[in-house]
Amino acid sequence: MIGRIAGILVEKQPPEMLVDVNGVGYEILAPMTTFYKMPLLNEKVGLFTHMVVREDAQLLYGFHDKQERTLFRTLIKVNGVGPKMALAILSGIETDEFVRCVESNDTASLVRIPGVGKKTAERLVIEMRDKLKSIDIAITKQGGGDQKLTASGQHSVTSDAESALIALGYKPAEASKAIQRLDVGGLSSEEVIRMALKGMVKSK
What we know:
A hairpin with a 4-residue loop joins strand 4 (44-53) and strand 5 (58-63). This protein has three domains: 4-63, CATH 2.40.50.140; 66-135, DNA polymerase, domain 1 (Orthogonal Bundle), CATH 1.10.150.20; 151-203, Ubiquitin-associated (UBA) domain (Helicase, Ruva Protein, domain 3). By secondary structure, it is an alpha+beta fold. 46% of the residues lie in helices and 19% in strands. The protein has a five-stranded antiparallel β-sheet with strand order 3-2-1-4-5. The chain is globular, with a radius of gyration of 17 Å. The chain is built from nine helices and five strands.
């Protein structure tokens, strides 16, 4: 298993990034909580990873720290939750908010995440309650994001953000509407995605 990757961040288009490790490019899928903390392109980056081997693919998932990876690994052990849904969960809700939902039996907030239905939300609350106690997740607000962009780059930013939301499981119309509600002037794609995700969770 590949447990950690360290190299140069060559490309990033959420939820995917490309990291060059001594001339070998690793395609890595990551939640938005990790993208918010990524450096600029062509800078050094280190990620804790989890590898999923299927009959038709070998997928590498990357995380900013071990706790985030631990939460991902715990989520995919829940019945009905696969890596793709776990990625959407970590991207669609902050860690502290997820813990609050579990502790307060708030399934209504969880079903707002794409792919999470009522039954899955109920299983998450029941199964994750005891698991969260054992993995000792630290509650911290996510921060970071790229440098501000000029107006000339905003079309690319909104397009990238919309593509990322669709990749995370949102319908194209939902993604487009969420971004249109925002004032994206000067924001990076990661910042637009973060604001759009928060807006969609609150508005549903």
